[in-house]
Amino acid sequence: MCGLIGALSRRNVAPLLLDGLKRLEYRGYDSAGLACIDGAGISVHRRVGKVAELERLLQRRMPDSAIGIGHTRWATHGEPEERNAHPQVSRDTIAVVHNGIIENYEGLRKMLEVMGYAFSSDTDTEVVAHLVHYHYAGLSDLFAAVRTAVNQLVGAYAIAVMAADRPDCLVVARQGNPLAVGIGDGEQFVASDAVALLPFTDRFVFLEDGDVACLAADGLSVLDADGQAVERPLQQLDVAGAGADKGPYRHYMLKEIHEQPDALADTIRGCVEHGMLLPAALGFTDRELLQRVQAVHIVACGTSHHAGEVARYWLESVARLPCSVDLASEYRYRDPVVPPGCLFVTLSQSGETADTLAALRYAAKAGYLGTLAICNCPASSLVRESAMHLLTRAGPEIGVASTKAFTTQLLSVLLLTLLLAHRHRHDAQAGRSQLEQLRQVSARVEDVLNLSRRIEALAVPLVNHASALFLGRGPLYPIAREGALKLKEISYIHAEAYASGELKHGPLALVDDQMPVIALAPSNLLLDKQRSNLREVQARKGQLFVFSDRDSGIEAGPGVRLVEMPKVDALSAPIVYAVALQLLAYHAAVLRGSDVDKPRNLAKSVTVE
Ligand code: G6P
Fold it and tell me: Which mutation among 301, 347, 391, 413 tests ligand 1's pocket best, with the greatest number of atoms within 8 A of CB?
């Protein structure tokens, strides 16, 4: 969702900005643009569609400039049209790129129109450009003009601003949206995501909410929300493998699905030593606090929310802790009750999801025992703002539809569950056998990857349908929901998931010989119940697509297509079955010809509420 980049250098920045924009493509967008300052003033280049379109435009005449800003826009105010793309410019003097939403833009727009400013777009961003222009005309100081302008803004934003007559400085500001300043050798960069800048530097300064900063050849100046000069710490990022290419895979998503055995093994390695869980690696640097946890409250969005729903089954049945799970967008508006000794846990691959961050900020003042972020991005706002963190070890995920970030979240919450379950015991053996079982999870996921061709064959009849139902029980119910979400996201087939026991309370009415029903049925304590539900589908001539293991006794036959899954222990089953459903969605999407890595209308990192 919207990506922003800026550069100030001695070399031509236009190709650097283009490269950075390509690295931001994974976030999801519908138009792209950049602006530079050359001899003739500010030149703006914008295109609806992919960055490749913008690149084609620039190939005709690549700008030559030592300063520039660029943007990928995901439409909020105004349709994806060239005039609404960023950068937005005021009177050929001020150019702005912006992520986020300015909530009071209508009032500001009216005020600026009265002052004689003509608007050429429907965006809230153009308001920022004119507002900075107005203050710059009065103050003749770009840094001061941006500070004054942002004081008038209500909402969330990360902005980068340049002035035609100041090719030596770039002014940036953040409130609620991330901004990373990259420090290069005699050059400086800014981006909404450090990933965009990795080819140029591995040294970053992450700005805080309320900061306004000026990037200039002689260094970086940062003023905080109170206007005080501050120094934000310089951080060196470990960039090994970051933004790597697709290798032999056709899509990033397929590559990332195949990276799961290693990512899961890394996750265990990072949290276990000599067969024992490491509390500090799981977030508990304070051992005393670990003993005081009496309940857990999990808040997340999208796929991460499904990981939270699986976690609830584990935390209650294995650790015997009451656990509630909320969608972040609902949580803080429902006035939640905080039970005594309750740990607040957020799950997020990006660590920048606006709703999850807002929930964390609410929870920080709500009387929880502590706040723990389970996140895949160490430098994210969520990690920085939480009291404790547990880093998932999936590595950078580029495909918009989350895969390896999800399964490493599952494994991380499972390890956290085991830690909480055995924290009072002095017996060093406690939990060892479960940990030993979990060490097999990578091998079982590998077994599922070897079933890819079989799953692809299953996707062939599926893609001719407009709708599909997914069924699961226990912790496999949220996995069924995740499977349905994956199918929707990338193949655009409508899909819904139900707890199998709910089938006869409504969705059975939809079942006929045209309805594919995808069922997760490992041999476990609930298998008999699940088999009864499958018979209910068969009796209505529904088309069953069953994922099950040999011990279940379920066989393929008329109306029943079967994928024989490896036999897995109950704790590993959600992880292993999730991978099978990722492959099903992937193959269905490829067969339908959709843009697997960048599905329409979706974004990897959702930074607006
Ligand atoms: C977006 C992504 C999803 C993700 C969700 C929550 O919608 O496309 O893949 O599950 O945001 O993101 P988070 O980064 O908080 O896990």
Answer: 301
* Surface-to-core class of residue 348, CB atoms within 10 Å of its CB (0-12 exposed, 13-18 middle, 19+ buried): buried
Q: What is the spatial distance between Cα 179 and Cα 209, in angstroms, rounded to a whole number?
A: 9
Distance 165 CA to ligand 1 centre (A): 40
Residue 239 confidence class, pLDDT cut points 50, 70, 90: low
Q: What is the CATH number of the domain that holds 131?
A: 3.60.20.10
The alpha-helical segments, DSSP class H, found in 319-469 are 328-331, 354-363, 381-385, 404-421, 432-438, 441-449, 452-462
Among 232, 176, 191, 212, residue whose Cα is nearest residue 352: 176
- Among candidate residues 439, 463, 498, the one where a domain is terminated: 439
DSSP run (H or E) holding 293: none
Pairwise CA distance, residues 579 & 412, whole Å = 16
Q: What pairs with residue 175 in β-bridges?
A: 157
372 and 322 share a domain?
yes
pLDDT, tens digit (0-9, with 9 covering 90-100), for 303-312: 999 999 999 9
**pLDDT 10s digits, 103-146:** 899 999 999 999 999 999 999 999 999 999 999 999 999 999 99
Active-site positions read 2, 604
CB atoms within 10 A of CB 595: 12
Residues making up the chain, counted from first to last = 609
Beta strands in 481-559 (DSSP E): 494-499, 516-520, 543-549
Distance 352 CA to ligand 1 centre (A): 9
User: Up-side HSE of residue 402: CA atoms within 13 Å toward CB?
Assistant: 27
How far is Cα 406 from Cα 305, in angstroms, rounded to an integer?
10
Using the 8-state DSSP alphabet, how is residue 566 labeled? Answer: P
The CA distance from 373 to 371, in Å, is 7
CA distance 516 to 544: 6
Could you tell me if 513 and 381 lie in one domain? no
Q: Which residues, judged by CB distance below 6 Å to any ligand atom, belong to the binding site of ligand 1?
A: 301-304, 348-350, 353, 356, 400-402, 602-606
**pTM value > 0.90:** no
Q: How far is the CA of 604 from the centre of ligand 1 (A)?
A: 6
Has residue 421 been placed in a domain? yes
Both structure tokens of 475:
């912790």
Tell the residue nearest (CA) to atom 16 of ligand 1: 348
